[in-house]
Every structure is written in C-alpha cells, then in structure tokens.
Write the structure tokens for this entry.
Amino acid sequence: MPVISAPHAFNESRLYVDLQPILGRRLYLKCEGFNFAGSIKLKAATEMVESAEREGHLTPASILVESSSGNLGVALSVIAASKGYRFLCVTDSRCNLSTRLLMEALGSEVHIVADLDANGGFLGKRIEYVRRLCAADSRYVWLSQYTNPGNWRAHYRTTAPEIAGEFPGLDVLFIGAGTTGTLMGCARYFRQWHRPVRIVAVDVVGSVAFGGPPGRRMIPGLGMSMRPPLLDESYVDEVIRVEEADTIRTCHRLARRGFLFGGSTGTVVSGAMDWLDRHDTRGLTAVAIAPDLGERYLDTIYQANWLQDLYGDDILDSEEATVASRRRQIISRVTDRQRNS
Ligand SMILES: Cc1ncc(COP(=O)(O)O)c(C=O)c1O
C-alpha cells in the first residue's frame, strides 16, 4: 500500500495496455498519466527541481519560471506547491483551458503568449518572454527544460529501467519527441543495455525538431518549432512523422474502447502502428510510451466542433464521425430545447 506525504512521491510505473485486441498489433503501451500531475512530466520536473536544490540555486525567495505547453507546467505547479516555492508558467494560446485552470488551482501564475515565432510555433516567443523576466528580476529561476540535463536524466534513471525490468526481451521502443528529454534518457540507457533496442522517435508533421518544413500544429505535447538542444540524433535509429489527423483518429479509436489518452499518445501509437505494419513483427517485443491521459483534451481532440473547424468534416472515419455527429445533434437538440423553454 503506497502511503505518501508529498504528491510527487507516487508514480504508477508498472501499468501497460496491450493494444493487440484494439489495434491488431502486439504493442505494449506504458501509461505515464497515473500520478498527481497526470503526466510523464512529473519525472522531469522532480529531477530538475531537486538538482537545482542540490546545487544551491533555489532559496525560499526564488520564483520558479518555465516555458511549457502545459504538462511540465502542471508538474512544476504540483512540486512548487508541495515544497513552498512560487511558480510562474509561460505558456501559449494552444495550452488547453483545463491545463491552465489546473495550474492556477495549484497556486501558480500563468502568462499566455499569443505571438507566433518565425517557425509558426510559440516556443521562440515564450523563451524570449522568460529571458526578459529573468533579466528584470533575480528572484526568477529558469529550469529550462529544453537544455537542462535533468530532463533526460530523469528518464535514464526511471522510465528506461522501468521498461527494461518488465521487458527483458525488448526489441523496439517508440517514444514521442518534444524537448526530447524522454527520448534521450531512454535512448542513452538502452544504448548501454544487454541487447540492441531499436529506438524510434515519433514526431509530428509540421515540427522542425528533426528537420523538415514548419507547419501548423494544434495539439500540444509533441513537436518543436526549433531543433531541440537536448537532441543527439546519433542515439536515434529512426524518426516517424505523424499527421495530426492520424493522431486524432487513433485517439478516438482508443477512446471507443474505453482508453481515453492524450494527443501525444495518439501520435506515438499511430506512428508505431505504421512502423509495425511495415516490418516483420513475428516474435518482436514492442513498447510505446503514453505520456498522459485524455481528460485535458476534452475541449479539443474530443470535441466535435473543434475537430470540424480545424480539420473539416472528414477527420473521423465513418464510425467515429457517426458518434461525433450524434453528439452534435444532442448538443443542438439541447440548445433548441433551451431556446424554446
Ligand atoms: C503530453 C506530452 N507528451 C509528450 C511530451 C514530450 O516529452 P519530452 O519533452 O520528454 O520530449 C510532452 C512534453 O511536454 C507532453 O506534455
């Protein structure tokens, strides 16, 4: 029975979903959303804050500041509240409403940047904003997840050995790439392991992380509008890029079977299925990492009007489109009833 007194002391690390019955391919999905921050970012946040403490960078007057598309912001909010630090999250207009409300409920301040950078993302502008804050007030301590080695070290110390312990015959590991902390921590660990593991990075079409033209990306979590400073491509065997439409379809397919995951899980699973379709998978042990769950995406990925406005009517296949339009009809019937009453 786990009994804790600090929220970051608990993380479910042994839960996997076998996707064979749902998607027809043997792929084990490591679920990282079961902790008090609701995502894998709790690991990176804990490691970065505790190493800043060890190195003497934090005092009771310090204000933690970080640029985050959301999940790291929530994780830092949890830790800051628990340890008694102030925290300011600099995010952008793509951050889910529920994620912003969560951070505020935990006592953090949230600033939203709305200007796009030269690559069509918000990252450059968010970082400029953080730099300006730090230059103006020495109480701000920027953990800088994009460059902080604690980000990848967290996964080298936890995520990768957790997988290795459960799957001693692991052949291929699919990892979504944002800051590439998860990717680099796992890739470094498995490079030194007792058998070769194929490391497949999953990125989003429109991200420039591994090169390629910038483009519109609406789902937070994966993809970058700059080259990730932590990335060392010599550890990565393959890169797969997934269209957001495929991410959304995969999320809805999983949701129809009761597994409500976040957007980056849809991306990683979609990329992994594509890879498994193209390879001889007899006897192959494959694992993918699911960074969070789906509740934070109810007003985006799982909302019919958002999908229709951004991706058009054909985004979901017939089964899912039927469910979505059924939901739209119910909403419009409720609205009609309200109008008539
Ligand atoms: C939901 C989600 N998935 C994936 C990632 C990417 O992980 P990493 O930054 O370790 O590459 C993030 C990072 O914020 C995330 O929030």
Remarks:
- The pocket of pyridoxal-5'-phosphate is lined by residues 39, 41, 69, 71-72, 176-183, 221-222, 262, 264, 291-292 (CB under 6 Å).
